[in-house]
Design brief:
The chain has four helices and no strands. It has 87 residues and is mainly α. The protein folds into two domains: 34 residues; 52 residues, no CATH class. The longest helix has 20 residues.
Length: 87
């Protein structure tokens, strides 16, 4: 595509309503990476399983900040142990 035509396309896209832009994006992404129904079905199954586990109380939700703090504390302790040994 020549640069001028490409710029004309971009200019046209800029003035489109957001709903049409999102449809174009979806179409482009699908053309790059086609939908794999079996993978989508597996993700839906996984999401439903996790939802059911949360609703039934079988799993405990953990605040994101707590997870990052806990991991950063562990990393700091590990570094204190390993750094003196040149690791």
């Amino acid at each position: 595509m020549r640069a001028l035509k490409q710029q004309q396309l971009f200019d046209e896209i800029d003035i489109l309503p957001i709903d049409l832009k999102t449809k174009i994006i979806d179409k482009i992404l699908t053309s790059i990476s086609p939908i794999n129904k079996s993978i989508d079905d597996l993700w839906i199954q996984e999401v439903n399983q996790r939802k059911n586990e949360i609703e039934s109380g079988n799993v405990k939700l953990v605040n994101r900040d707590d997870v990052f703090f806990k991991n950063s504390s562990k990393t700091k302790k590990l570094n204190e142990i390993l750094i003196p040994f040149g690791c």
